[in-house]
Write a structure and sequence with these properties.
The structure is a homotetramer.
Chain A: E1 2-5, E2 14-17, E3 27-37, H1 41-46, E4 63-70, E5 82-85, E6 88-90, E7 100-102, E8 106-107, H2 109-118, E9 127-131, E10 135-137, H3 146-149, H4 151-164, E11 172-176, H5 181-192, E12 197-202, H6 205-215, E13 219-223, H7 228-238, E14 243-248, H8 256-263, E15 266-274, E16 286-288, H9 290-295, E17 299-302, H10 310-319, E18 329-334, H11 338-347, E19 353-358
Parallel strand pairs in A: 11-12, 11-14, 12-13, 14-15, 15-17, 18-19
Antiparallel strand pairs in A: 1-2, 3-4, 3-9, 3-19, 4-5, 5-10, 6-7, 7-8
């Protein structure tokens, strides 16, 4: 089959013929119809992000496609089903603290690298082999809709965080990083989950206005100044009442003081979710007053990705019209132009833009 | 490899050489050292229980052994590890409502039968192939201890129920069916989980006394009379305070009125767990006053088996000395005497007896 | 102050002057602006429902008004605040299983009657004294909006049930009793909580069509036939997928077989909520197959009313525009016409009608 | 009645006659039989801790006594009942984020101070008036046992933390601050809740040995060196497996780097509880790597005190013999010697010592 292969960090993807995956008894093989190119894929491929990848590798974080072959551990899937493939591979021999490998992207620790040996290649290819539990049926869609359904890959990430924080309909959320790609998805997901109000801080006023235009008056924009104390106060004021849940998904470049300004807007007994890339390459850690955490009874959830049962309900929210996928402007490339797709994604990292590869 | 094979219901197990299992990519192969023969295995093999089994089949519900081969979805298991194999096979393509097959025992519905096609054979054999998530490490044990560790197979069942009911240390539990095999295990597990008191009703006074002798004063025996209203009142009186959780694990032969007497001892806002075989072959259903359930805010949990993460913590409770395995008198047979083992198990169905096959 | 007083069951309410409530240190006194007359109030006042009420009594289940006086156990309430008063009085000396008294309506057991002694009178009066925790701030409203906000009294009941069942956005719900007063509120609340689909069974096709007209395509009406097996199958077919949660709020007159048809539509691992009045005056209990509950891992929640923290979030859902109060056609009476109000409420028991008393 | 009164910070308690409390409708009056003097009471009375107290005040954090008078919001309490009084007063008009006042000790924010106005005086007196929900029945005890039951005041604090972290039987816990007064109580409580193993780090080897001597082999002592990286590694090694839950209850004097060494021993997906006094008087905050919290999916719970339902179950654990109170050596003073009691408590701050005032 045809695939885009990274042979060494910093070189272009080689578009070439590679052996098609062979089905094992714990997996599903999917014909990829569309896969989203994450905006920072260029940083992964250049080696700048220092992600743990065993080369050569086919990159690509999940996608949308049709089931080609099914193992004996599936009872409801059928060949031809339209499915979403998630990239989060978890080891099956530790139900409590599984190792994690993000197929086609990165892995956590030695255990994650062991998983990567077998679930090695990502979705920039005609086919992908994924663990059975990573596949979720979409129901009937048309091939042209496949691009838009890839947006679930964006939305499932914040959904995982809000599930960890047990977000309730009627609550008030603050999304730190709201004008980013995942952050704007967090705004949409929080609203779809019934948040009464989403405070959206950012520096880019045009983008803040755009969030309000698209999602309506439940979004409360806040222009940040860069002064920690001022920003904290402004964000609090923007909310009509106490902020129940703060969600942070800032990129690696952001200082922890910016994150702290957002965190400390949360009300007593509130919950904080950390899903960003901050400190990924070191730098000063996140410093918080111990006494504040204790006296105010704050809970902080570090969350990486989302649980296996998340996709079913998010798909249902889309089907019900509660979560819209048509906010994304998509630009599709074929596999032969995978390098162009990566460059395009980097140049169009905004919140409502999605770059696709259609193998 | 050698195995005990059921060729048709009502015939003896044939002890013969069968092909050894071949490892797939989602499984583990275990050399079985000891497997417990459930007391009613004779009723399964005779066809009396009408369990869904695709013949010929190697029966046997999990067991204890050593890892022989490991798939690529495991990162912590090593060849040679002592492990517990659980029989509960769940389909991997539905995280919310998976199909279930009890390997070597039975299956639920069409989906369960599809799982049975691949995870077909049970543990009355030298080797077994199980899904990776069904294997839990025991740590170092000696071969002679393998029999006792099989008792976990008994204990995990009520543990699954108490987890569903979120049993808290310091609570009062009533075990309906306490003098049975699984019921007495429920008493032990509830105590190990920190139950302040376990009310143990039954008709067999000798056995009730035995429960108190073994587990101490936190067990409160109640002699049942067969009169529903009287029995309900007696059980309530036996508890030092309100009963927080009622756990029922009565066998198929018991009438639902007996179960109801136990259920209705639970306090307002209390939880009821149903794990028995009642109504398995039809008969009058469980009739409860709707208004009582509503006004008293009762929660009823139907529970089949236990979740994937249960074994790790139960093993830790044993290692910590909080749950003892030495209450069981074990009688072991080799594979050649599997039929004798089944007969022996049926004749020794009491609470502190365990019949083993050691392949 | 003026109040409507029930002196003996079966006699008209006497509109007369009674002593105004005196503030204690654990309460709030509220000037009632509007209170909803529950449709079956006539059955309570006639004695037909045999509700536990110590006569003479001022009936009336909570309402909307302004804070007149505040005890020392409140820190955020201010005199003049618009508030919702809930009727569910819970004893404060048992955090685990509190006694319950529905102020102005009924009480559960001896403990409930003890609470009724002090929190004796309901809301058909110019003032009411309620426990501090029963008051929730509404924010600014106008006096003319007070009628509509009373609809929260209807909506909080099913909300309590869905909270118990941990309803998730994206799930599918079946509301048994959807064409009734509380049942239609359950449909609205489930949708506001993000249910992807609400199956609404009933016999009244006009009303079913009305539910769809008001709440849109996410509501799936089902015409019931009265045949249990048929109805169960029809309800399942009406859902686009498995039914995650069945909510029942049938009135006392309905047979338990009707309830069972609804309950048994729930998917494996599904949740059932029972909040209706079924069996209130005896009759055959709810009979369910034990084996089905167990094998399918069903959870059944009996729920009476709603927890103390429910109102805050439901009010936020209204403020956010996610839950609309304008579906109700309200008809208001003054206190002098309280008996007319009770009669009118009985004659207009439909789902989108609300009868008010404005003292 | 007689009471010990603090008139200004830094002066001795005045033992004098003050008006007895008058019962309101939301409270209970208790005749105090014994009250524990927290070891740092001297720092509160001197003003060193800068606790928010409206002077003059009767200090004292809850205690054990007999019910003298009961409000109408209680249905199970009776005059003469032996009870535990908890100090945590919560405002009743905010179910989601109540204000908190620790009666006789301190208050949080303006709202807490408003509560303090009414629930003003603590337990160094013959009588105390507390909110009804702050009283829990102990069952029958003798007056001489009252001292020991006061130990619950110590134990409820860590119990509140373990409840927040949903500690499960069979888990491994690390108690940071294990050789302190609350820390050693945390060790006892974790064991009573079924922890398989409690890692107990500290600098005082004698005290570590004492913990093992009293609580047995499930306690794993670790001698700390003061080197953060070394200490973290030592603590991990002391556990037989991954550490599921880290509980910190370090005093204000301890540096956040010491806390961090403990926190970072927790396994992926583990939970951290912060209940100490660290940063109470400022100093460098707790700095943690954001990326570690996120990638390892860590949850951090700040917890102040314990929920209203905690005491019932902890009392049941004592009654069941699962939590022993006889580890404490008690030294009792009468009210006339309250100042001596405070000095004695400060001089005997060790883990198994308790200083009492018996009014």
């Amino acid at each position: 089959m045809k695939a885009a292969v990274l042979k060494s960090f910093g070189t272009p993807l080689a578009i070439e013929d590679v052996p098609a995956p062979v089905l094992g008894t714990g997996e599903v093989i999917v014909d990829i119809v569309s896969t989203r190119v994450i905006s920072y894929t260029n940083e992964v491929l250049s080696g700048e992000r220092q992600y743990a990848l065993d080369l050569p590798v086919v990159p690509g974080a999940g996608g949308v496609g049709r089931v080609r072959a099914i193992g004996p551990d599936a009872t409801k899937l059928a060949v031809g089903d339209w499915v979403l493939c998630g990239p989060t591979v978890r080891s099956r021999d530790d139900a409590i603290a599984p190792d994690i490998h993000l197929q086609g992207v990165s892995a956590r620790g030695e255990g994650g690298m062991r998983l990567q040996k077998y679930f090695h290649d990502g979705s920039f290819a005609e086919q992908i082999r994924v663990p059975t539990e990573n596949v979720t049926r979409l129901g009937q869609i048309s091939a042209t809709e496949a691009d838009q359904w890839c947006a679930l890959g964006n939305m499932l990430v914040p959904y995982g965080g809000f599930l960890a924080a047990k977000l309730q309909p009627g609550e008030t959320v603050l999304v730190s990083g709201a004008t980013g790609n995942f952050g704007s998805a967090a705004v949409a997901v929080a609203l779809a989950m019934g948040a009464a109000c989403v405070v959206a801080p950012g520096r880019n006023e045009t983008m803040l206005a755009e969030l309000v235009r698209r999602y309506g008056e439940r979004v409360r924009p806040v222009k940040l100044t860069g002064n920690e104390a001022d920003d904290c106060a402004r964000m609090k004021r923007a909310a009509p009442g106490p902020i129940d849940c703060v969600f942070d998904i800032m990129p690696p470049s952001v200082a922890t003081t910016v994150v702290r300004a957002a965190i400390m807007t949360v009300r007593p007994y509130g919950r904080v979710v950390l899903m960003g890339g901050v400190n990924m390459q070191g730098g000063a850690g996140l410093e918080l007053p111990y006494n504040w955490i204790m006296r105010e009874c704050i809970t902080i959830h570090g969350v990486w990705m989302y649980p296996p049962d998340a996709a079913v309900r998010l798909i249902a929210l889309v089907r019900a019209g509660l979560l819209r996928l048509d906010h994304y402007e998509t630009k599709a490339f074929d596999l032969d132009h995978a390098n162009e797709a990566v460059a395009y994604a980097a140049a169009n990292a905004g919140p409502f833009s999605m770059t696709m590869i259609r193998p």
